[in-house]
């Protein structure tokens, strides 16, 4: 019989702490508990290194044709136009509006308050000036107005069969510079829409227009928006640069499906009630109302954020309903 065959194994003298550490099984919480049990001071955790955001550089061209430029360091649309103007050695006041990923006057691709981090920016500059006499034969002219955020209102949509539709020299993308020899540069889109709505029926008036400068392949075309099927998506699942009139621009996730549906519906309501289309304004209204509990709370919040617009009560109630319908999947 082998010596020591009946010898019992001694219990391990290793502590639980040593065993766990050797096996690599001690997680942060276990290690902290062991230190505290021994009465030792806990180690000070090193602060996480600050996140360094990469430089956001966008490519840009003049829509009628130019070399490609690179821009960065802008917070709002006004600063964006200044950066583009510096690249191409023009005045910022020459820029009427910008489109994303197309050089055409495509109102579905109009730059608003958000830019995808991979989007290519095309700047449309002032082209030919023209003056048109219009007789208001109906209550509505058939125009939908928007603006570029820096004081230029322009035509976003022309309703088929309307008074303006019959005047073939008036086109989508034309900047409305004046009405009856009175300049409206600096006016917001809703102010211009109100001026046009208040013009007396049956009397002629003058529109001073500036069309965007056209590339060779766009000359002699009259761009007309198709019937509304909803504006282009605000985002496409990527991160976007959110431009703000106050404060710094921020990189954000693209809007959710609910926010996109609600924004399209609210933009439709802006056209119905006020004769304007403004995806960024619609998105701001959705953002303001998505967490509110009732229409009164929403109306109060809307007034604090967008009080200058003086929205009618009926419009605010319909916007509240649209946000609720989108949230519940009814639109």
Question: Can you describe this structure?
Answer:
The structure is a single chain. Residues 1-26 and 224-237 have low confidence and may be disordered. The strands form three sheets. Strands 1, 2, 3, 5, 8, 9 and 10 form a seven-stranded mixed β-sheet that branches. A three-stranded antiparallel β-sheet has the order 4-11-12, with no helix packed on it. Helices cover 29% and strands 20% of the residues. With 331 residues, it is α+β, with helices and mostly antiparallel strands. The protein has helices spanning 16-23, 28-37, 77-88, 189-198, 257-274, 279-289, 295-306, 313-327; strands at 58-62, 69-71, 95-100, 114-116, 121-135, 143-147, 153-158, 175-179, 182-183, 204-212, 239-242, 250-253. It has eight helices and twelve strands.
Helix content: 25-40%
Question: Radius of gyration, rounded?
Answer: 30 Å
SSE string: HHEEHEEEEEEEHEEEHHHH
**Per DSSP, what share of the residues sits in E-state strands of 2 or more residues?**
15-25%
Poorly predicted ranges: 1-26, 224-237
* Protein structure class: alpha+beta
Count of individual beta strands: 12
Number of helices: 8
Give the mean pLDDT: 81
Please outline the major beta sheet.
7 strands, mixed
Shape label: globular
In whole angstroms, how far apart are the ends?
87 Å
Short description:
This protein is α+β, with helices and mostly antiparallel strands. Helix content is 29%, strand content 20%. Helix 5 packs across helix 6 (279-289) and helix 5 packs antiparallel against helix 8.
Question: Can you tag this structure with a few keywords?
Answer:
globular, alpha+beta, 12 strands, single chain, disordered N terminus
């Amino acid at each position: 019989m082998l010596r020591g065959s009946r010898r019992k194994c001694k219990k391990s003298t290793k502590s639980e702490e040593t065993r766990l550490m050797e096996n690599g099984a001690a997680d942060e919480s276990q290690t902290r508990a062991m230190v505290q049990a021994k009465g030792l001071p806990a180690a000070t955790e090193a602060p996480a290194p600050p996140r360094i955001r990469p430089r956001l550089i966008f490519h840009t061209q003049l829509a009628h044709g130019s070399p490609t430029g690179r821009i960065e360091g802008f917070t709002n649309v006004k600063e964006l136009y200044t950066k583009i103007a510096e690249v191409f050695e023009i005045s910022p006041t020459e820029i009427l509006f910008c489109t994303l990923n197309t050089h055409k006057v495509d109102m579905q691709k109009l730059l608003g308050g958000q830019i995808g981090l991979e989007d290519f920016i095309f700047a449309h500059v002032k082209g030919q000036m023209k003056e048109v006499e219009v007789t208001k034969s109906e209550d509505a002219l058939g125009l939908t107005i928007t603006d570029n955020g820096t004081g230029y209102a322009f035509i976003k949509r022309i309703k088929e069969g309307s008074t303006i539709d019959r005047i073939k020299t008036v086109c989508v993308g034309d900047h409305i510079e004046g009405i009856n020899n009175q300049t409206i540069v600096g006016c917001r889109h809703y102010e211009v829409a109100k001026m046009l709505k208040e013009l007396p029926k049956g009397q002629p008036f003058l529109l001073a227009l500036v069309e965007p400068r056209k590339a060779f392949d766009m000359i002699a075309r009259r761009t007309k928006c198709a019937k509304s099927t909803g504006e282009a998506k605000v985002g496409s699942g990527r991160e976007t640069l959110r431009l703000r009139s106050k404060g710094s621009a921020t990189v954000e996730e693209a809007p959710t499906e609910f926010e996109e549906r609600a924004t399209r519906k609210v933009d439709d309501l802006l056209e119905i009630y006020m004769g304007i289309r403004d995806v960024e304004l619609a998105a701001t209204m959705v953002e303001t109302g998505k967490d509110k509990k009732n229409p009164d709370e929403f109306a109060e919040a809307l007034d604090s954020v967008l009080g200058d617009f003086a929205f009618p009560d009926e419009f605010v109630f319909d916007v509240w309903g649209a946000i609720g319908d989108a949230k519940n999947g009814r639109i």
